[in-house]
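User: Round two. Same drill as before: sequence, then structure, for each protein.

Assistant: Same drill it is. First protein:
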Amino acid sequence: MKLKKKLIYMACFVGLCPIALMAISILTIDHFEIKIKMFYMIVLTALFMAVTTAFFVKSFYKYVIGPVQKLYKAMDEIASGNLDYSIHSDGDDEISSLLNNFDDMRQRLKSSAEEKITYDNDNRELISNISHDLKTPITSIKGYVEGIMDGVADTPEKMDRYIKTIYNKANEMDSLINELTLYSRIDTNRVPYSFHRINIADFFDDCVEEIGLDLESKNIKLNYSNNVDKSTRIIADPEQLRRVISNIIGNSIKYMEKPEGNISIRILDNNDSVQIEIEDDGKGISQKDLPNIFDRFYRTDTSRNSLHGGSGIGLSIVKKIIEDHGGYIWATGKEGVGTTIHFILRKYEEADIHEQNTDN
């Protein structure tokens, strides 16, 4: 309002100057009729200047001062932390562009603040998950070590069993720490991918041979079928692709919950891509949980017992790796029947070499 008053005073001053000059000129005229005419002219000029001044002040305030005050108000609101205060304008002039640019900045600040809150919440949840999951094996290791120190393991057989248990629990901790390290690198896009042309049949033959021995020791039968041409190749990072398969099968083992189980790996031809399916006959996943299992920190098991531990980021790592390979992943299944993880990878074509090198 102070600026508005100043504008009125300035406009009045500018308008009164010529009127004052005309009034002074009347004093120098002796002819009465001319003085009357001059007086009427001064009155009309004054009315005209008053109307013009009012219109000018109103227009200037509406199109310049008003938006500037609106901008000033928005700056105060943002400074106080209110990022929902919008000043979007539908006009097409320079002032409207200024307001819209400021509002775009506000929206970016709001998005950034929301992302930071989400990131901080995810980090807190991750720390909580890892802390809980590390505490379980640490407590177990301490218990077995105390048993050895107190002489509970008083036979070679007991001593051997205690040491093996300690070793296995230490491996669990090492696996959790490695998973956390990988997650941190994936989350900041710092995974050092090393893409190669891979023969899909040779790669999965090696994987199945390696995985089969481990599953056999857990009374799980591995079924494998390859329905693509033996010469089919893909472009992938072998180490990260092995991690994908390992994480998926590790998740299947974790939720098998039966003395004997089955896991099937199928490779299907899908025109210009290869579809891999990893199916288990474990406890399955409810339909409401299926769309969320690849989200970070999502757990279908909320009890967080030692059997179903883990950081809750294994499948989110799988999704990220597959997407970084230009593929996509999804899950199907039924609770009490089992779960199938599907993912698609493009077949190798000569043009892919240049594309991958450019991306790297």
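Second protein:
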Amino acid sequence: MKRVCLISTVNHNVGDDFVREGILCLLREVFGAVEACVIHKHFPVTVRGEPWSLVDQLTRGVPNWLSWRSHISSAADVLPMNPLADLVLSSDLVVQCGAPVYWKNVWSTCAQTEWFAPLIEQRWRKLERRVPLLNLGAGSCQAWGSDGTEIVEDAECRSFIDRFTSWSALTTVRDSLAQRIVSQCGHEVPLLPCPSIFTPGSLRLQPGTGEYIALNYMPQGGHYDLAGDGAPARQRWEDAFCKAARELARHHACLLICHDRQEHAEAERLLPEIPRFHSLDWREYLQAYSRCRIAVVNRVHGAVVAAAMGRQVLLTGNDTRLLAAAEVPGLIVLPLSEVVDSFSERVAELLLVPAASPSVKWIETTRSHYLELLRSTLLA
């Protein structure tokens, strides 16, 4: 049995769970059974195994927890590595699972990501001749409209991208901007839909007839205000979404699917009359999306898995993560800046589109492309 080390997150972002589980579906088809070991990349010390996963759980509620966890991880780097317990050093395969990998903003750059140095440079490099490194479903995260120049022209970002891509036995990207950025740094990599499309199949979910309209609201329309539009843009989006949601709820059953506690709190504050859903189990999110009729969302991976189950989906947001959804057939992608003033009308238009029978042909074609790449890379 292959021991696969997955660089992902743990109880942090259900979208990361969808991507990781989709990758595991592919690896099981290549190898049969696999032993999956997950590192929480935002707390890289979890690479050391127990008791660090327990420390991860206990420190999440600590004030200024990001700073504290960063100090803990850095301090632990001076400890000797135990090859038997270390999740990278004891693995047969190391996989970076999706997520934005290429970015530059006023706070940080991809060259400063907290997991690359401890996990790849300090550990995987010790094993590179015998353990493959994969970077699957990598994406970009820039303000909408970026052409990636700000990343490519940054020497540290170029160095990071060149090293990571050169060291990886296989890199695939999930959006056209990510492909452009890597290409301009000297590497040609395949563009394929995000591996999260395979996750619904892992549960063998049979989508129902549609019990409700799935809604998802992020206060900024995305994770960050990368364009620096500030409070006025945030208020415009809040007003537009609430107006559309209330109009829908007057005539249809609706469910606000909240991917984290902040979204749940905002949904309760703004739209207390609409039922809400929040869970710590990614499987329950898949089931929630499988029962919807249509989905109107800010979360990219909510949109992607709903579309993979044959649902009609409207996705809007404020950054280039949207481009990942643009690779999914039939998914309507609208930048927030272009739709905020006509959002209710666009949602109404979606309701008029006749329901179509789910098509799995594009999923199977994508699966074949991934498996061909993985087998030629890992079984050669």
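The chain has a mean pLDDT of 92.

User: Perfect.
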